[in-house]
Specification:
mainly alpha; 5 helices; 2 strands
Length: 142
Amino acid sequence: MFHNVNDMPLYYGEMGQVDLFNADHTIIAGTVVSDIPGLVFAGYQGMFAVITPALMTGAFVDRLRFGPYLFFISIWITIVYAPFCHWIWGGGFLGQWGVRDFAGGICVHVLSGFSALAAVHMLGPRSAIIPDTANIDDTPHR
């Protein structure tokens, strides 16, 4: 049996589920989905966390290079996406007010749209990646 740093056993359960801290699965997966393994629930939430920045990429064309884009997305997921999703899906105040988002329309589409709008406002107008466009040969090939 393997043990973690707190000398608690690591469990390798059915379908590859790893329980690192001997946690209750109803806490990991939430009380609404207590019959879903924690890793499946985390993967499902991770899918939304990857799709949301992908929807914003069209707004960053010719405004941001790839390296700063990756840095922005990693900070954005931590500071903006995770708290907002918790407000709705994690039992936060919006969820307590009765807001329901079963397919990710609020957390994914609304958040990516407003975040792209705010980022475009902060980044300014588009600038060409290739500054010398006069020397580009755009004649058709035969």
